[in-house]
Amino acid sequence: MNFILQNWQVIIGIIGSAIAFIAGLKTRKVDVRKKEIDALQNMQLAYDKFTEQTNSQIDRLMTEIDLMKKENIEQRKDVRLLQQDNRRLHLEVSKLTEENNTLRKSVEELRKENADLKMKK
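Above: the chain sequence. Below: its structure as tokens.
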């Protein structure tokens, strides 16, 4: 007991230092944990923002794809109509070509008859 009384300042200093050391460790652990929590919160915010932007882009692209599909359907209808017109015009050209050939033959025959008649005179 006498030892304690004589060295009470040293003992209290050692105990105080030990308590301060333990408190410092706990404080560092709390600081590290706070930093981890802050980092996780920042990561979550970044992920949420990324997800929001991605969803927005996906929605925009889906809308654009839908518009392109509708436009494509309309263009196909137009192409079909143009193909029908093309077929009709091709048939008309074929008929006119045949008629032209017939008329040319008739004109040629008339020229021959006219030439024959001129020679007979």
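The mean pLDDT is 92.
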